[in-house]
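Let us practice reading a record.
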Amino acid sequence: MFLSAMAFVAVIAIMFISSSCKKEATVTPQGPNISTGSDIIDIGDSTAANPIHPNFILDQVHCNVGWQTLFQFNNALLTGRFNMFGTSIHFDQKNPQNTAISSWVLLSTFNTGEPGRDNPGGCGQANMGVQYNVNYSDTSGGHPPVYTVIPTSDTAWFRSAAGNCQSFGTGYVANGTLSFRNVNHPVSLYFDYAGMHNVISGADTTKWVGFTGQFTMLANTWYGVSLMDNINDSVTVLVNYNAKN
């Protein structure tokens, strides 16, 4: 079944049609219209070994990276998410050209809520490009084979370096590269910044920031994902990141 930033990814991702700016690819702002301002946000990936001097950390339990595509090409949407993802973001609200994003998803954590599709060896995992070492040595007595992920097949990345982001509508567009199934392809991430908000709890004040984004990838045309009469070539990746200091 499946799919995929995305890639970021989370990434991250978390992710668009090549590097063109198409009106239909915009994202509805989740906060007030604050397209102008001077916030500088550095979100560190809390799962990374050495986050680079972040002033905010991704709050995993209030984030998600998901995807959606038309089932059997023209029916209702088939949807899913990734259970593990991360991102590092440098966001400059006043000078968006300084913005840089590096987001990832762990492909083997692909989740649609349907075990036959999601479990190791399922069609979803296969279409993601996840590869396994499979141990069949103890399948007697109803024991299933043991699947061990090959790490080099298990991560998709969205990366956009400084100089590739600009204002777009009330939000932004970051042109970058989606690395998926050992293929690198340019994509454009359209995203909105929800602003910085203070949450007071007793004597403590926590600052929160949020980003919502999306991009579109062509699963078969760009990455060779088998559609198997189940999904559309066009897959949208949806990213919601909340971070706190």
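A brief commentary: Confidence is low (pLDDT under 50) at residues 1-24, 30-34, 48-52.
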